Amino acid sequence: MMQEPVTMNTGRLILRQWKPEDVPVFADMNEDPEVMKYFPGPLSRQQSEGWAENCRQMLGKQGWGLWAVEVRASEDFIGFVGLHAPTIDLPFNPCVEIGWRLKRSAWGKGYATEAARECLRIGFEQLGLNEIVSFTSIVNTPSFAVMERLGMKRDPDSFQHPSVPPGHILREHCVYRLSRLDWMQSGTK
Ligand SMILES: CC(C)(COP(=O)(O)OP(=O)(O)OC[C@H]1O[C@@H](n2cnc3c(N)ncnc32)[C@H](O)[C@@H]1OP(=O)(O)O)[C@@H](O)C(=O)NCCC(=O)NCCS
After folding, report:
1. Is the C-beta atom of 176 inside 6 A of ligand 1?
2. Residue among 72, 78, 66 at smallest CA distance from 103
3. Does any domain span residue 51?
4. How many CB atoms neighbour CB 138 within 10 A?
5. What is the DSSP string of the chain?
6. Number of domains present in the structure of the chain
7. Alpha-carbon distance 154 to 90, whole Å?
8. Is this model's pTM higher than 0.90 or not?
9. Percentage, residues of the chain above pLDDT 70
10. Atom 16 of ligand 1, nearest CA residue
C-alpha cells in the first residue's frame, strides 16, 4: 500500500490532496439540492467540514482515497472522485468502491469519467485490487451512466442500502463491478 498522497494529472484535471480553500466550495456543493438529489438530504457546513477532513486524513494515511478534483486550466476545485473501502454493512463487503460528487457547473463535461478512469488505474495497477465496485440508488441515472462509461457491469440483483430508511425511494441500490481482468481487456483503460 502507498504512503504518500498520490497526485494524478489527467488531460484536463488534477486529482490531489485537499486544501483548506476547497472546503467552502465543497460545503456549497453539498448544500445544493440538485447535487444531493439522490441522497437523503443536503449536508450542513459542519458535516461538509467533517467529510473534507476525513478525506484529507485518509489520503494522508493511505496515499489513496477520495481525491479533491481540480480543473487544470482554471485551478477550480470541482468536487471529489476516488476510491473508498466502505465500513457499513453491505452484502458485498469487503470491497473497494469508486465514487464521485461534482458541483453542478462541472457536470456534462466528462470530468467524472475522466477522473474515475485514473482512479481505476491506480486501484488496479498500484493497489493491486482484483475488483472495484460502485453502487448508487437505482434512480440515480447520471451516476450509473458514469459506471457504464467506465465499462462496469451491473449485478442482476439490487440491494437495500442499510443507511436509508425502509420505504424511502432511495433505499434500493444497484451494484456495478469491474474486475482487473475485464479492465485490462477493455478499451476504457
Ligand atoms: C454523477 C455525476 C458526477 C455525473 O456527472 P456527469 O457530468 O453527468 O458525468 P461525466 O463527467 O462522465 O460527463 C458525461 C457527460 O459529459 C458530456 N461531455 C461533454 N464534453 C465531454 C468531453 N470532452 N468528454 C467526455 N464527455 C463530455 C457527455 O456527453 C455526457 O453528457 P450526457 O450525460 O448529456 O450524455 C454528477 O451528476 C454528480 O456529481 N451528481 C451528484 C452526486 C452523485 O449523485 N454522486 C453519485 C452518488 S453514488
Report:
1. no
2. 78
3. yes
4. 16
5. ---SPP-EE-SSEEEE---TTHHHHHHHHHH-TTTTTTSSSPPPHHHHHHHHHHHHHHHHHHS-SEEEEEETTT--EEEEEEEE---S--TT-S--EEEEEE-GGGTTSSHHHHHHHHHHHIIIIIS--SEEEEEEETT-HHHHHHHHHTT-EE-S--EE-TTS-TT-TT-EEEEEEEEHHHHHHSTT-
6. 1
7. 16
8. yes
9. 96
10. 108
Asked if residue 3 belongs to a domain, the reply is no
Domain region containing 132: 8-185
Q: How far is the CA of 47 from the centre of ligand 1 (A)?
A: 25
Q: How far, in Å, is the centroid of ligand 1 from the Cα of 52?
A: 22
For the cut 70, the answer to whether the pLDDT of residue 2 exceeds it is no
Domain membership flag for residue 2: no
Domain for residue 55, yes or no?
yes
Q: Tell the residue number behind the cell numbers 493511505, with chain if given.
A: 62
Which CATH number fits the domain that encloses residue 113?
Answer: 3.40.630.30
